Amino acid sequence: MTFNTGIEGLKTPALIIVLGKGEHGVSLDTPDPYLILRIKTAPEGRRRTKTKDNEVNPVWNEEFTFFLDGAVDNKLHMILMEANYGSLDQTIGEAWYSLNDLPPNEVVTKSFFFPKDGKSEVELEFRIHEE
């Protein structure tokens, strides 16, 4: 199955990312985490999860659909953030993942560690839908 992007003549496979659990290391402050997902090569390529207030081990269970161009290098940029109400939000860490080698019509689950603090882990599930 291919998905129509609404652009005349352009059809691309869809990537659906299902956010699983996040685990954060011991901290003096209880985090309010959220995750920003960016794919520069995708139309509407920036999404974010809901903020999980006061959650050391958040579970998001959110789905996002991106339309990919198979002719370019599609990289997912993940930014794990800490919401700071009343001041600027803080970056916990960043990670990147190349999407081009994902097998079509299969579920792939990956865990990502965010190197800024070395303790934060987020699990994502990927599905590329193609004919």
Automatic annotation (TrEMBL):
A Pfam entry, by short name: C2
InterPro entries reported in the protein's UniProt record: C2_dom, C2_domain_sf
Protein name: Cytosolic phospholipase A2
Organism: Magallana gigas (Pacific oyster)
Lineage: Eukaryota, Metazoa, Spiralia, Lophotrochozoa, Mollusca
